[in-house]
TrEMBL record, chains A, B:
<feature type="domain" description="HTH merR-type">
    <location>
        <begin position="1"/>
        <end position="70"/>
    </location>
</feature>
<dbReference type="InterPro" id="IPR009061">
    <property type="entry name" value="DNA-bd_dom_put_sf"/>
</dbReference>
<dbReference type="InterPro" id="IPR000551">
    <property type="entry name" value="MerR-type_HTH_dom"/>
</dbReference>
<dbReference type="InterPro" id="IPR047057">
    <property type="entry name" value="MerR_fam"/>
</dbReference>
<dbReference type="Pfam" id="PF13411">
    <property type="entry name" value="MerR_1"/>
</dbReference>
<keyword id="KW-0238">DNA-binding</keyword>
<protein>
    <submittedName>
        <fullName>MerR family transcriptional regulator</fullName>
    </submittedName>
</protein>
């Protein structure tokens, strides 16, 4: 298809598509003349992922490029590619200095993951984000014992099993990788808004009918 | 206690405490002379909540003031106060225009909550945030059938029950309200980072030992 059709089918303006092409977020089409190029279904699919990252996830273009480069890096296996792509997504910054609270938070994060039966990968940015979040709870004196954290881990475990099955329904390794990245970004607001709605529902039940 | 002690015990500089006092995030202390005021444990507790909102949640000062005003509004019952306070927390913007996709997303959000047995409160900002998130999934053509969304709702339901119990351990209605707001903000990054770690764990298991 030509640029105009790619624009119409994707709902992305031709100016934005050209910008994504220049920024390397979209692979170039096949040149068919000095001024025209032909695009395929893979461009449409990739455009969908770019919009998930940039427009919905509000991820900076440079970061999105990093994520896409990881997806396309065929020198590595599927597991490394998915790990690198998801790790390149924006995360809260790790703690600035490793004070006593951070050391306690690291121990807590390790204990929690052991209890859940997970491998501990300290250089996973999500591990660092967890340590930062736990250090904030500890520093402010809010409850965060392992027993109080376990329900969050168990919930995440259940969702991950569901998500792996969902991703497995995509046809090829590349589309699976793209879906894994897109769904990580797109389902975060789903999960957070449902958490708030569930809290409102539980609070309403509790206060109207305390038992 | 005097300002210096409040600063030492809270770890917040006196300059920042004075700023919070000026901005109305902290109630004034009891004047004991022209230049000195006395602060109590409730100031220490409130300071902890302000830091959770402003420093950890990166919530604008004006928004934090709105949240605190809702907590302190003793003309309304506990349920209204908690609802107003949590609703004042920053949420993704609602959809800009109500096109066909938004209408489909609204129906989907309604059906999901009905299946979960929740009351549907369309003016809850979290409901609007859910509609926005589902509209993005629909628009980009990623999977979001009710069956695929239910596990997120069920997980949120389980966490809400846990959170209500956790908050119930705080002594007074006011401390419970404060804890509800603080924990909503502070546990979001815990949940999101655990989700990414659970995904990494599930992907590692799946790809090393496909079954």
């Amino acid at each position: 298809m030509r640029l105009a059709e790619l624009s119409e089918r994707s709902g992305v303006t031709t100016a934005t598509i050209k910008y994504y092409l220049r920024e390397g977020l979209l692979p170039p089409g096949e040149r068919i003349s000095a001024t025209q190029a032909e695009y395929g279904e893979e461009h449409l699919r990739r455009l969908r992922l770019v919009r998930a990252l940039v427009q919905v996830g509000r991820i900076p273009v440079a970061t999105a490029r990093e994520v896409l480069t990881a997806i396309d890096d065929d020198r590595t296996d599927q597991l490394t590619r998915i790990g690198t792509a998801v790790a390149a997504l924006p995360q809260p910054a790790p703690p600035r200095r490793r004070d006593e609270t951070v050391v306690t938070a690291e121990a807590l994060a390790g204990e929690l993951q052991r209890r859940l039966g997970w491998r501990i990968v300290v250089n996973n940015p999500a591990h660092q984000a967890l340590v930062t979040a736990l250090a904030a709870l500890l520093r402010l004196g809010y409850p965060c014992a392992v027993e109080q954290l376990l329900p969050y881990g168990t919930a995440a475990d259940g969702l991950a099993a569901h998500e792996i099955a969902l991703i497995g329904e995509f046809a090829s390794p590349t589309t699976q990788l793209e879906a894994a990245v897109a769904l990580t970004v797109l389902y975060e607001p789903v999960l957070l808004s449902l958490r708030r709605l569930a809290q409102a529902e539980a609070a309403t039940r509790q206060l109207r009918d305390p038992s």
